[in-house]
Amino acid sequence: MKSTLRGHLLVASPRLNDPNFYRSVVLVVQHDIEGAFGLILNRPGPRAFRELWAQVGEGPCPTDQAIHIGGPVKGPLMALHAYPELNEPCVVSGVYFSALGREDLHRLMAGPHPFRLYTGYAGWGKRQLDQELHGGGWLTLPATADDVFYDLQQVDLWDQCRCRVGRDILSETLDLSHAPQDPEMN
Q: Which of 24, 28, 131, 153 is 20 to 30 A from 41, comparing alpha carbons?
């Protein structure tokens, strides 16, 4: 197991019995000896951002996207974005994490960079995530910016990631360095 899973995806295994994480893909934002913190990438919430913008924004709302449910633990408005000028921690190449104040929210909305907004987060106490990994609750793989900013309408992120993990396991186990991406092309 890696010493830190920061910048990795946790892909819920069918063995994971927690309904909060059914078919979820979590980006690990922080992971150290004290615990772990992440955001569920594939859980758009019922609330549109324009509802919040009406309270804190100026002018027309710059996006139609939903506010995602980042996990079962309540938290502030957060974002994953590709806007390095906010000087926030880089989680994975091209992806930054921010807990948003009003000023940062306005700056993020004004830029041309992709972003996703979240309320709530996934959190694990000391060694809790390690125990869940050992028990087979999660599959892991390195994250990319494409994973974070995937097309919600076109991609089933959980299914796509589950297949990637399977391909990685088969490639390593069977040394299939020339295996096709699609097994039907074999």
A: 131
> Do 24 and 156 touch, CB atoms closer than 8 A?
no
Helix (H) or strand (E) holding 140: strand 138-142
- Where are the chain's structural domains? 8-153
CATH code, residues 8-153: 3.40.1740.10
Q: CA 87, CA 96: separation in Å to the nearest integer?
A: 9
Q: Are 80 and 95 in contact (CB under 8 A)?
A: yes
Query: Looking at this protein, which amino acid is placed at residue 11?
Result: V
Instruction: Give pLDDT tens digits for 166-186.
Output: 665 555 555 555 656 555 555
- Radius of gyration, CA atoms only, the chain: 17
Supply 27's token pair. 């980006």
pTM of the model: 0.86
